[in-house]
Amino acid sequence: MMDEPREPRRDHLREAAETMRAVRDRCVWTRRIDHADLVPYLQEEAAELVDAVEAGTRADLKEELGDLLWQVLFHAEIASRDETDPFDIDDVAAALAEKMIRRHPHVFGAAVATTPDEVLIHWNAAKAAEKRTRTSVLDGVSMHMPSLALAQKMLGKAAQVGVTPPPPPPTPSPADEAELGEALLALVAQAREAGWDAERALRQRLRALAEDVRAAESR
Predict the structure, then answer these.
(1) What dihedral angle (degrees, nearest 10) is formed by the CA atoms of 95, 97, 100, 104?
(2) End-to-end CA distance of the chain, in Å?
(3) Of 154, 164, 178, 184, which is most buried, counting CB atoms within 10 Å of its CB?
(4) Could you write out the DSSP letters of every residue in the chain?
């Protein structure tokens, strides 16, 4: 007895892209939105995805991943209608696949990586080859990142050029991330008590760190 032929699996990603195209064509609100208009929604959806990862259910995670995917599809659909340099979601996906294949030569090529550190060596080498036109380790670092994430990123970049911020005043050393969270919250509470803006204070210090990094690179 011959097996019955299986129905072809639905291409749900393609359906989502086609749904986005239809919405762009037929929804009067969506038709007037441009890339800049979408930025607050992109930030909000990314933040909600973080919440789902850290404290949500599996259903929350699936939903928020979908909401973030919708933002990607939205931007790609807007880009596809650009008069001077159009590209669509297929172009985005193709460029992503090509980049990830280049950055994983131990998976798709002859390179060997048996440890996470060796993987990073291949990744960084491929990334450096792609970004040859960059003149600073800070090129490509978005100043719109959340300030703490930006601080951690910039400290790593600064270390690459030998820039190390001076040590802070002696404080109890946190033993784990929970204690670190307590220490950070205590600092914010201290700032609030003094009438200081903790966010602005950190960003001002990061701008000074960026100047130190660029000065070190120009020597």
Answers:
(1) -140
(2) 78
(3) 154
(4) -PPPPPPPPP-HHHHHHHHHHHHHHH-HHHHT--HHHHHHHHHHHHHHHHHHHHH--HHHHHHHHHHHHHHHHHHHHHHHT-SSS---HHHHHHHHHHHHHHT-HHHHSS----SHHHHHHHHHHHHHHHTTT--STTTT--TTS-HHHHHHHHHHHHHHTT--PPPPSP-PPPSSHHHHHHHHHHHHHHHHHHT--HHHHHHHHHHHHHHHHHHHHH-
CATH for the stretch 12-85: 1.10.287.1080
Its pTM stands at 0.77
Q: How many residues does the chain have?
A: 219
Q: Spell out the domain ranges in the chain.
A: 12-85, 88-132, 144-164+174-219
The low-confidence residues of the chain, meaning pLDDT below 70, are 1-5, 169, 171-172
Angle, in degrees to the nearest 10, between helices 177-194 and 198-218: 110
- CA atoms within 13 A of residue 92's CA, in its CB half-sphere: 15
